[in-house]
Amino acid sequence: QVLLRESGGGSVQAGGSLRLSCAASGYTPSTACMGWFRQAPGKEREAVARIYLASSATAYADSVRGRFAISQDNAENTVYLQMNSLKPEDTAMYYCAAARSATFGWCPRSPGNYDNWGQGTQVTVSA
C-alpha cells in the first residue's frame, strides 16, 4: 500500500496560514483519490478536502471553502493543503488519506472509504 507522511502543521494565530504536505511513496495504480481529513477532540473525523488524481477535480467542506485549497504535484508524489484565514475552529489533527476508487470521478467523503492513512499533523489556531 501507499505510505503517507504529513508535515507542515504547527501553531498559528487566527487569520494566519499554514501549508500541509502529504508525501506519498509506494504509490499504486489503484489509488484514485487523496483526501485531507481532520479530527478535533470529542468530534468525528471529517473530510476537509479531496482531490481526484486523474483530473485534479477537487471538493471541499463548506466550512473551509474559499479558505483552503488542495493541490497535487505529480512529479513529487505530494498532495498539499494550503490553509488561509485560519480560525480557532480549524484546530485539529489533520490526516492525509488515499482511496482506491471514485464514483463517476468524485472522491468519497466518508473516512471509511479511505484505506490508507498517514499519522497526522497537529494544527492549532489561537484566538
Structural account:
- The chain has 127 residues and is mostly beta strands.
- 0% of the residues lie in helices and 50% in strands.
- The protein has no helices and 11 strands.
- The chain has strands spanning 3-7, 10-13, 18-25, 33-39, 46-52, 57-60, 68-73, 78-83, 92-99, 116-117, 121-126.
- Strands 2, 4, 5, 6, 9, 10 and 11 form a 7-stranded mixed sheet that branches. It has a 4-stranded antiparallel sheet with strand order 1-3-8-7, with no helix packed on it.
- A hairpin with a 6-residue loop joins β4 and β5.
- The protein is globular, with a radius of gyration of 14 Å.
- It starts with a strand and ends with a strand.
- The model has no long low-confidence stretch (mean pLDDT 93).
What is the topology?
Layout: E1 3-7, E2 10-13, E3 18-25, E4 33-39, E5 46-52, E6 57-60, E7 68-73, E8 78-83, E9 92-99, E10 116-117, E11 121-126
Parallel strand pairs: 2-11
Antiparallel strand pairs: 1-3, 3-8, 4-5, 4-9, 5-6, 7-8, 9-10, 9-11
Highlighted features:
about 130 residues, mainly beta
Through-space gap between termini: 39 Å
Largest sheet: 7 strands, mixed
Cα radius of gyration in angstroms: 14 Å
Q: Which class do the helix and strand fractions yield?
A: mainly beta
Quick structural overview:
The protein has 127 residues and is mainly β. The chain is built from no helices and eleven strands. It is 0% helix and 50% strand.
